[in-house]
Every structure is written in structure tokens, then in C-alpha cells.
Amino acid sequence: MAAVASRTAGLLRLRAAGAERRWCGPRCAGLVQGFLPPGGEGAAQKRRVAHFTFQPDPESLQYGQTQKMNLFQSITSALDNSLAKDPTAVIFGEDVAFGGVFRCTVGLRDKYGKDRVFNTPLCEQGIVGFGIGIAVTGATAIAEIQFADYIFPAFDQIVNEAAKYRYRSGDLFNCGSLTIRAPWGCVGHGALYHSQSPEAFFAHCPGIKVVIPRSPFQAKGLLLSCIEDKNPCIFFEPKILYRAAVEQVPVEPYKIPLSQAEVIQEGSDVTLVAWGTQVHVIREVASMAREKLGVSCEIIDLRTIVPWDVDTVCKSVVKTGRLLISHEAPLTGGFASEISSTVQTYLGEYPRRHCTGTPCSEKRV
Amino acid sequence: MRKMLAAVSRVLAGAAQKPASRVLIASRNFANDATFEIKRCDLHRLEEGPPVTTVLTREDGLKYYRMMQTVRRMELKADQLYKQKIIRGFCHLCDGQEACCVGLEAGINPTDHLITAYRAHGFTFTRGLPVRTILAELTGRRGGCAKGKGGSMHMYAKNFYGGNGIVGAQVPLGAGIALACKYNGKDEVCLTLYGDGAANQGQIFEAYNMAALWKLPCIFICENNRYGMGTSVERAAASTDYYKRGDFIPGLRVDGMDILCVREATKFAAAYCRSGKGPILMELQTYRYHGHSMSDPGVSYRTREEIQEVRSKSDPIMLLKDRMVNSNLASVEELKEIDVEVRKEIEDAAQFATADPEPPLEELGYHIYSSDPPFEVRGANQWIKFKSVS
């Protein structure tokens, strides 16, 4: 709770800044882990476990019958729909055949055959390169990288080959039917190499799309959009939500548009922007702010990191006058800086904060 | 009768510091050494391989037995501590592969270098760190070898470069260390280990090429335990002859469950590298009893019968023990005594690892950059600033 309390206090300072519209104070860091301030509660430094509560969205009945699914089941459902609809679709990656280390591909090999759901050896650069090749011929390639932390051997293939294919061939060729899926974000015990959030590295590259869902319902719709989108997409799945997030998800396929942020709660005093797991943390902060400080927060889930929905965020900041962006990834060069500077370019100076992770935040529990 | 009693009591009194059993054992005649036959290694681009017989001295035998038993018990203790949630995070155990770490160490000098992937507890021990620092590192305490900040996958020691989480990434590093060895001209070699899963990573082949091109004293070692996490080698590799995968680099395939075989092969490979002929590749055929990590039961991709079969027929500690006992290098009781001592040592180490305090929070920001003077790092909330000292 200390984490949430510190963020609330940060908001308090924001409110105190009032209408001065000045950049003020140190940036507050309110990641899922909180440390007590020195001098508070006996100055005994305690560690806290990663904390958030998944908040499901109300059931959406516009897409037909729904079923209770957690995040990995909603991913399986999306992949199932894709393979059923598109005869050229193939799924490959490390250990996907038996169902995957997070059970996202359970049952698909039995249903669609070993020619369409198959394992690759341990070679991320090879997996993505191979996927680009499949996509260039027109087939739909859904590649899985086992953890986002391992995506870096494939970075060259993504940035230099996939992202630039259409441009450099003058639209003669493209690998738009490539989608790369990877588990993303902190999980509590992941330490250096099972917790990373590398979306900012890819945001720097035109030609690809980066999408991060916050819930099973969002995940299925966004993944189906990524698969059908005619640009190479990277779909990061918050691994801590695989089991923790349970919602009613439509069984039939449906799409959620890319590059559209969602205002999940309207408010008038401050705009809070987040994506992935952090949306749930922010929701909790918003309700605490309303109870304790009487602050009305507008919450935006960015959903697509790049190309991102500048209009929705700017319209919201025009309304509220204040912006707070929160993400798990480290502060320097994190995507919050991009959002922040873009909004400033269009709207001028305004009070803003980035609440982000630190290099040391991926601590073993 | 009285004289005999007096004589016995003199002996016992004289040997008062040793337990009576030790006196009895010392009085038995053991052989000083024995010659054993070992399996011939398969060779690739080599005219000759390591010898097929080797001499094991009693002293060495007891040393290897103790080391292997220590690694085994340490891994089993780590398993126990993990299940009690005293060790958290990731934990990759190497029981079953003791002959690899002890055998490799037996074939090289302490001044040689070694780098491996994440199944590194055994190597951390054989490279010279005491068990208590290893267990304390696993439990994340300040007595640990990486001060409690590294954990299972990030243990380091002198001339031991870890302990690396990203599969295959340590191999080009090993080639680089070998370059430094050659440059420094001290006749040192670098053992660069990786697994059968990592053998399919592209950067390994880049390292092969550089090492061969510049004739680096690098021994590439593929620890083939038949499974890359849950994928068997046949399903991951077009060629499971890992010792041939270096193509232009000569290779040998070694029985990794026989410590003497590993030792001889390592000596051979080290001599090859030290003579300036360039890199060499060794495939150690070994087996791990545990799953890939503590979150893998290890039986969904292989049968319990298979694990049991390896345990009963090829267990490295059992093989060494049988050899020593059958050639009169040691007695069963003596080896049992070593077992008891090792168990006690591990218990003490586990006690230490459980009781030692965690590293202080002030150290959270240390060693991010090398910096003088120390600089400030923002902590996880706006009031906490860590000093980054390095």
C-alpha cells in the first residue's frame, strides 16, 4: 500500500501546483513495489511484494456469446479463430507445440496439425527472420518469442528487415502478415531476464506496430487486429496477468482497432495514461485519489504504443490540464517521455509527471 | 592377556585424537593408485584422441569423490530450500552432471578461465568458492558470492565468469576471454560451456569462426544433457553430433558421466589449445536428474524410467565409488565417512544461508555505472535516493 500512498501524495503535490502550470518537483516513482520513505513508520525499510488488483471490465455483449477466460485462454481463443479463418496462418516458436510455457497455444497443434503449429530450436534471430520470410510470401506468420527479454537477438531482424521491407521495396514486398507475440513485464520473481518491458526500444522504429493489452477481452480483440493488420506487429502480453486476469470474453472473433487509446474512466482534474498491467494500478490510484483527495481522474489505456493515439491523449489534457504517465519500464528514454514531449509540442507547458520503474525495480521476491 | 590389553590401550590412547575407526582404516593397506580403462572418445578432424587408460591416485580419487558428493548434496539442499520458499526466483540444478564440473576442473589449472550458462552452481564450487557463499547467494543474503544481488544465475568467482542468463550469449564472451589469454601470453585457456539447446544459437557459430580464424585457445564445451528445457535433442537439432558442429574446429565426444573420461579429455583439449593449434570442441554427454529448473517437474517430456535407468547405471558418483572400492583405493566405510562430513558441511552452510541477513537496501543502487564520485539514483518512490557507489 505504500506504493499507492506515495503516488497519491504525488498527486497531492500536483494539485497544490494548481493552475500555475509549472514543471515542478522531483519526478515521483510509483511502481508496483513501494518502499517506505526514510523517517516514516520507524524508518524500518521494508520490502513489499508486487501489488495490484486486476479489475475486469463489464461484460461486452456486442460480439455474441461470451465465456469466462483468463489472459492465456483469450490468446488461445484468438489464435484458434485466426487459424480457423486463415488457412495460411502458422504459429511457431520455442515450445509452442505442447502448448507453450504459458499455455497460450494449448490444443492448437492437435486441432490444426503439426504443419501449422510447430516448434523452433532455440534461436530468436532465426525465428523472427524465418517469420519475415513466411510473411513476405503472403502467409500469415505468428511467431512467439518466449520472453520479451529474449527478443534482442531478433532486434536486427525486426528493425532492419521487418520494419523497412515495404519502404525499401517501394511496396513491391512487405511482411505485413507477421505478428510477433512475447510475454512482457514484471512478474515478481523474474529478476533481470524475465521481467523486461522493451516497448520503448521498438517505439523508436517506424514501420512496426507495438500493442499491449490490459485484459483478456482487450487481448483477444487486439491480437486479432494485429494478425489481420497489414503491417508487422509486436504484441506484448503482460505475463503477470496470464492467470490473474479473468473476464468474460466473446467466443467469436472480434477486432479492437489499433492506434486507438481508450478512455476507461472520465474525469476532470488530471489525465492518467498507462498500458498493460499498470492500468490496473492506475485505476486503484484513481479511486484512492477520489476518496482521499477528492480528485477526479481521467484514465486512458494507450493500448497501441506506436503509432499511438495522440488525439485522445491531447483532448484529455486540454480538458483536465494535467498529465501523469506511468509505466514499468525505466524512466530515461521510456515511452512516457515521448508522450510527454508530444503533448507539450501541441499544447504548450502543463504540469506533468512520469511514474516509472527503475533499473533496480526488478527485484527478486 | 594383560599385555595385549595394555598394548591395545596404548594404541587407543596414542590415537586419542582420531576416532577408533580411523585407526583401523589407516592400518589397512590401500593401493596408492590404480589404472582404469575409459571409453574411447569419438573424434572429429583429429588423428588421435585422449588416452583410453588413465591412472587415478587414491588422493585424487578421494578428492573427486568429495567434490562430486558436495555438489550433489548442495544441489539437493538447494532443492529442499526452494521447496521451503527460502530460495525464490529461478533455480537450475545440476545434479547428475557432477562429473562434468569436477572432471573439467581436474583437467585444467586454477589460472585457466571458465564461463558457462545458468546451470552454474557446480562450477561455482569447483572454481573455488565455498558452499556457504553459494547457498547464501541462492537465498539472497549478504554472505553470498555476489553479495545476494545475483542469485542462482549470476554467480562469479576468480577466473569464473558466471553464471549467464541469456542462452548462448556467453559463448562469444568466452571467445573473447580466450583472445585475452592468447594476448597475455600466459599459456592459459578458456573453457566456454553451453548446452544442447544453446548449440542452435547463431552467435555460437560466430564465435566458432572467430576462434578458429585467430587460433584462440578456447575449448568450446557442449554439455549435452539430452534436453533443452523440455525439448529433446532430436526435435531441436538437425545434427545431434554436437562435437562435429564446429565444422572446421576439431571435436571430441566424451562420456560426461565418467569423471576420468572427462578429465582425460579436458587434459587433451587443454594441451591442444596450449600448443597454439587453435580452438577445440568437446561434447560432454551427460544427464540431469532434476527438471530444467525448479518450476519444471522434469517428467512431462521424459519418463521416470529413463531417469531411474540413468541413476542406476551411470550415476557419476556411483561409478567413481565402485571403481575405487573395487581397486582397493578406498573402502566403503571411508567413503561413507566422507558422505557424513559432506552432509554436515552442507547443513552448516544451509544454516548460514538461512540465518545471514539480507543485503542492506542502501546497496540497491550500487555498481550501475563505474563512477567517481558516487552519484544518485532515483529509488522506487520520490523520497528514496540511492547512492550508486562503484
The CATH class assignment of chain B is Alpha Beta
The oligomeric state is: heterodimer
User: What count of domains describes the coordinates of chain A?
Assistant: 2
Please state the second-level CATH architecture of chain B: 3-Layer(aba) Sandwich
Unreliable residue runs of chain B:
none
In total, the number of strands of chain B is: 12
Return the CATH architecture of the largest domain in chain A.
Answer: 3-Layer(aba) Sandwich
Key traits:
heterodimer; A: 365 residues; alpha/beta; Rossmann fold; 2 domains; 7-stranded mixed sheet; 5-stranded mixed sheet; 12 helices; 14 strands; 34% helix; 19% strand; globular; disordered N terminus; disordered C terminus; B: 390 residues; 6-stranded mixed sheet; two-stranded antiparallel sheet; 13 helices; 12 strands; 42% helix
What's the layout of helices and strands?
The complex is a heterodimer of chains A (365) and B (390).
Chain A: H1 2-17, E1 66-70, H2 71-85, E2 90-93, H3 108-112, E3 117-119, H4 124-136, E4 141-144, H5 155-162, H6 165-168, E5 178-184, H7 199-203, E6 209-211, H8 216-228, E7 233-238, H9 241-244, E8 246-250, E9 262-265, E10 270-274, H10 278-293, E11 297-301, E12 304-306, H11 310-320, E13 323-330, H12 335-347, E14 352-357
Parallel strand pairs in A: 2-3, 2-4, 4-5, 5-7, 6-7, 10-11, 10-13, 13-14
Antiparallel strand pairs in A: 1-8, 6-12, 9-11
Helix pairs in contact in A: 1-10, 2-8, 4-5, 11-12
Chain B: H1 2-14, H2 20-26, E1 33-37, E2 42-44, E3 53-57, H3 58-83, H4 98-107, E4 113-115, H5 121-126, H6 131-138, H7 170-184, E5 190-195, H8 202-213, E6 218-224, E7 227-228, E8 231-232, H9 233-236, E9 251-255, H10 259-274, E10 280-285, H11 304-314, H12 316-326, H13 332-355, E11 375-378, E12 385-388
Parallel strand pairs in B: 4-5, 5-6, 6-10, 9-10
Antiparallel strand pairs in B: 1-3, 2-9, 7-8, 11-12
Helix pairs in contact in B: 3-4, 3-12, 3-13, 4-10, 6-13, 7-8
